[in-house]
Prior knowledge:
Elements: H1 5-8, H2 21-33, E1 39-44, H3 50-62, H4 76-83, E2 89-93, H5 100-110, E3 120-125, H6 132-143, E4 149-155, H7 163-166, E5 170-174, H8 179-193, E6 196-197, H9 199-209, H10 213-226, E7 229-230, H11 232-239, H12 244-256, H13 259-271, H14 276-295, H15 307-317, H16 322-339, H17 345-357, H18 364-381, E8 420-421, H19 425-435, H20 437-442, E9 447-451, E10 454-458, H21 462-470, H22 472-486, E11 491-494, H23 509-518
Parallel strand pairs: 1-4, 1-5, 2-3, 3-4, 6-7, 10-11
Antiparallel strand pairs: 8-9, 9-10
Helix pairs in contact: 2-3, 3-4, 5-6, 8-9, 9-10, 9-11, 10-11, 12-13, 12-14, 12-17, 13-17, 14-15, 14-16, 16-17, 16-18, 18-23, 19-22
Amino acid sequence: MYQALYRKWRPRTFDDVVGQEAVCQTLKNQVLSGQLSHAYLFTGSRGTGKTSMAKILAKAANCLSPREGNPCGECAICRGVDDGSLFDILEIDAASNNGVDNIRDLREEATMLPAQARYRVYIIDEVHMLSTGAFNALLKIMEEPPAHILFILATTEVHKVPATILSRCQRFDFKRIDSAKIAAHLVRVAQAEGIALEEDAALTIARLADGGMRDALSMLDLCSSFGEKIDAATAAKALGVTSNERLFAISAGILSGDTGAVLQAADELAAQSVSAERLCEQLIGHFRNLLVARTVPKPEKLILCLPEERQQYIEQAERFTAPELIRVLEVLQDGLITLGRVSQKKPQLEITLLRAAAPELAKGSQDLAARLDALEQRLAAGALPAASPPRAKPAAPRPAPKAPEPAAAEPAEPPQEQAQPLLVWQDIMERLKTANPALFGALCGSSAYLSGSRILIDSENSLFFKMMRENDFTRRSLKQAILEVTGAKYGIGPYRRQEQQTDPSGAGLEELIHSAKKAGVDVHISE
């Protein structure tokens, strides 16, 4: 019987796990020293190795002949865990066994000594699905566990696990696996399985996997059934996505304002069963790469693709301005949110693409940003008429002097010495990479400081401050990322350097409007 690749290539030892080196090394050291905790919590997005790591730890803790912290894979204990015949290792799905009675049964069994192994191990997957009563029952045995019991809890939503449970576990956070590491592993698997997988196809699958190795192997399995030789085009057809060539063609149509070409491309992709949401997600990633190529001096580490594709990104990005790329990204982000709420996907996708290609069809702050950007370009080119001298106004009568009133206290930035470096800033940036790629690109190379109830951001990129002033989605994304990482709500503001007290973004919105009016241009600001 055929075995799926993600099952066949599930890691058997700590050394087999891809992308979680820090977690593996820590657990190996604990096995070597014999200093195992009675409870572990593995948290992270799907497909990052939580359940596989739990089984490896269960084997290593009970292995009869461990090898440098790894299970040997050959003894009766290891074989029993691998084939599921060892009753001392129990895997429980909390999604379907989430009642208080299920946990009470577990507590009664836990008092029994293991039959074969050193530890009786309970692996509770998706533990956040337990009911309140079940959590309370689990807490009782976790408070004073028998010496022969080992709990390994796994979850994708750690914020739903009660603090009383969290405080009794050693927590390990599984990060999304780097796409380059996923692609390299796919190539190794393909070679071992006799699958003709090209490098560009491996990169395509790795990008779509979004940091999950299990998803990547499942996609490789699907592509291998689609054709003998898997290149980027074959992978795109098998997975129902569009190729990079088509994405570059769409972005070229958006750049030139060719709405007909953009809608024609969307219609052709819909005929090929490419979903509207998937196309919108791909375009967001595509324009994110263009923004990185446009704003980052050395974008090699931030854009995962073949060298020739990277050069194509750099060349096309030079034809856009950074504000144009940000505007398109904002339109696509809003469109993706709307696509999730409507039943008729295709018309909404067409509206989104029209707004991206035609700035005059955009709305709100996007419309204002596009109009002001065009105005700024005309001012720089000297295409605007000279301003006529203002007419003199009659002098108003001078009011009688009043007694001076006490000045109201102006809000000021906290003193520089009170700000402390924010150590979790890179974790916040990791959240932004997915939640708001445009903001992540604008914040590359930045740092942050904690000052009381505010987080002060130090960035030399003027685009970041422009985005913060003019776009609500930018501010919401940043505050949400801070909340998810720190667990608290903070105000945000710029970090003022002693030597740089001026506005880092140059001329502000009011100055631009004033300059336009002074030049004789009638500027209308839409609310």
